Amino acid sequence: MKRILTLLLVSILVLSACSSGSKDKETSGTAKDTKEITVLAWDPNFNIKAMNLAKDAYKAINPDLKIKIIENAQADIVQKLNTNLSSGTTKGLPNIVLIEDYRAQGFLQAYPDMFYDLSKSFHADEFAPYKTATTSFNGKYYGIPFDTGVAGLYVRTDYLEKAGYKVEDLQNMDWNKYIEIGKKVKEATGKQMLTQDPKDLGLIRMMIQSSGSWYLKKDGKTPDIAENKALKEAFKTYKEMMDADIVKPVSDWSQFVAGFNSGDVASVPTGNWITPSIKAEASQSGKWTVAPFPKLSGIANSVNATNLGGSSWYVLNIPGKEKAAEFLAKTFGSNKDFYQTLVKEMGAIGTYKPAAEGDAYKAGDDFFGGQKITADFAAWTEKIPQVNYGLHTYAIEDILAVSMQDYLKGKDLDKVLEDAQKQAEDQIK
Fold first, then answer.
1. Would you say domain 35-148+309-357 falls under CATH 3.30.1360.10?
2. CB-side exposure of 331: number of CA atoms within 13 Å?
3. How many whole angstroms separate alpha carbon 9 and alpha carbon 32?
4. Of 125, 133, 281, 352, which is most buried with the most CB atoms under 10 A?
5. 78 touches 106 (CB < 8 A)
6. Class in CATH terms, 151-306+367-427
7. Burial, 274: exposed, middle or buried (Cβ in 10 Å; 0-12, 13-18, 19+)?
8. Which DSSP string corresponds to 12-54?
């Protein structure tokens, strides 16, 4: 009798476990007849807001699919992916995850089998080449592009005019011209030309990508520092701006934003995602323009277009992947009307080229004197040089941030870059 009771207890426990597992699959989107998928992203005012708009747009196509959006800080998402993927544990992973473009290759090359191939879900050639390059590995596309980090030069036109310049003078400009204008602006207005955080090398990053160069060689793994002509010129340009005393030092994001909102600086060279922050100071409406990003002086292949930031959506290779892929394909992957909504509702610009023909992209912006800034950014997006961000962007920038300070303090530039090259080679194996 005791043995029978034991067997019955074991049977109950097994059935209970099976029932529990079945319930988990239904709620997490792992059953074949998936009715719910989960999305993991950061920034409720931008990435998550865009995903909620996509969720609304998709209701007309499939009202039965429940899309659960979970907010986590980007650092927490990176840690979660690394922990789960390295251990081979899929429990708790989302169906869709947002990954910053600078980090994407690190995940794709380390865990290619953990991401779902989206090559047949969308037409990659309808997106800007520089963007799809970050989402592909071994000839397959694993991510559907989201926002472009296409950069521009935001300029106070009133300060510019006081210095004797016009908006036309900013076209096809290089950094030498920018520094020249900066000196005149400071002389005429007492204002600095731009802010810089010594810990943040975003400006260097933008400068070298405008020349089709990166911290790594085309293989995305080998450090390219000591012999990198674009990087050397970017370092020289950075120092020239500092020496010209046209830079206002800042130490964090709030000081960066306060620099232009308070009117302390005349320009902001950065990604288009800064537009809402610039427009937040309504009293400055009509006093701004956006010009093409300056190109590097003396570098033949440098262009007036570059990128800073941006991310893409990836589907993890877990049950529910087909529904997740279909959802992305019908929204971020092909829906021109949806991209107009992104521009109208939140000013988010994608790299989906057909969307540029829509009305929202062609509309003028009163804050920028009626300039069609979205159309301009879309046009510059197509000119951004394609580079391989590779696996070590931030690791190398940690090294170069120290190198830059050594250079500014007087250390020979060639020696600075040679030492950084050796350190990067030692650190990145």
1. no
2. 24
3. 30
4. 352
5. no
6. alpha beta
7. buried
8. HHHHHHHHHHHHHHHHHT-STT--EEEEEE--TTTHHHHHHHH
Domain positions in the chain: 35-148+309-357, 151-306+367-427
User: Which pLDDT tens digit goes with each residue over 310-361?
Assistant: 999 999 999 999 999 999 999 999 999 999 999 999 999 999 999 999 999 9
pLDDT tens digits, one per residue of 123-151: 999 999 999 999 999 999 999 999 999 99
Strand-pair partners of 38? 68
Beta bridge partners of 155: 267, 289
Q: Which residues contact 168 (CB under 8 A, 6 or more apart)?
A: none
Burial pattern 333-369, b for ≥16 Cβ within 10 A else e, equals: bbbeebbbbbbeeebbbbbbeebbebebbebebebbe
Return d(Cα 394, Cα 402) in angstroms, integer. Answer: 13
Q: Which residue has the tokens 């950061």?
A: 42
Residue pair 138/249 in contact (Cβ under 8 Å)? The answer is no
Residues pairing with 307 in the sheet: 150
Q: What are phi and psi of 313, to 5 degrees?
A: -100, 130
